[in-house]
Amino acid sequence: MKSTQYLGVASLAIALSLATVEVKPTQAAVFNYNFTTNVTSGANPGQYFGSLRYDDTNLTGVGAENLDVSNGLLSVVFDYLGTRYTETDDVDFPGGIAPVVSFNNGNFVGLSYLVEDQFFIGDANNPSTGGNRFYSIVSADLTSATETGTVTFTRVPEPLALVGTAIATATGLWVNRKKKASVAQ
Q: Buried b / exposed e across 129-163, counting CB within 10 Å, b at 16+?
């Protein structure tokens, strides 16, 4: 009888956790990433931090794709040398095409983000596609770009996924505690 109760409680916990993280496959989502630049050479070595946010409404998940501020509701914030830069600081922003985040078969690849006379994040060999390299730059000319570090992107978990995981974990621990208590009696 008790194992039936435990099974019932565990089933309820799983159902509740799944209910809190229900995602409809056709529904667009907003994704958040934090990124860290690890500058190892040049005049300003150190770690610098930023974040980006995009809406995947226009992604198909097939092949190479880019989202920019015009088709992906992309926003970028990057703190570098005491200054906070946003997507509006990108050299190509007035045209509404930069910065850019890139994907391959729906998987995040990287960012292309150029702030004149400061830095470029991306791939200097293919600047219209996002990458994970950090360059110091003079003017907006990529021929002046000097690779000085790398960029690491980390997806920020959605709050509802964390809540569902917490519910399932707490319920599992509670069931385990009850089980141990009944064995001890």
A: bbbbbbbbbeebeeeebeebbebebeeeeeeeeee
Write phi, then psi, for 19 (nearest 5 degrees): -65, -30
Mean pLDDT of 121-138: 94
Q: How many residues does this entry show for the chain?
A: 185
Question: CB of 102 within 8 A of CB of 129?
Answer: yes
Q: Give the whole-angstrom CA distance, residue 151 versus residue 89.
A: 19
Q: What whole-number distance in Å separates Cα of residue 75 and Cα of residue 54? A: 7
Beta bridge pairs of residue 55: 30
Residue with tokens 């995947």: 56
- List residues bridging with 34 in a β-sheet: 51, 154
Phi, psi (rounded to 5 degrees) for 54: -145, 160
How many C-beta atoms surround the C-beta of residue 72 within 10 A? Answer: 23
- Name the residue with tokens 């409809």: 24
Per-residue model confidence (pLDDT) at position 18: 45
CA distance 35 to 153: 4
Would the pTM of this model clear 0.85, i.e. be above it? Answer: no
